[in-house]
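HUMAN: Can I see a protein plus its fold?

ASSISTANT:
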Amino acid sequence: MMGGDEPSLILSQKRLVWRVPILLTTPKRSLLGVVGHLDVDARTGQLLIPSGFTEQIQRRAQTVISGSPL
């Protein structure tokens, strides 16, 4: 299960973006860790999703899960 946390307003590649941490959780253990972040253009609301984003998040989630005593 994944969800977002409190966003931060940052300057990234000469534009203001809201950077939202992506959290990996489980019903029994709650928060396992941060597996990435999603940037949202603060002016337009456009999601800034780089190529390979889904695969990268999935790899990080597998790494966090494998290091967690479930």
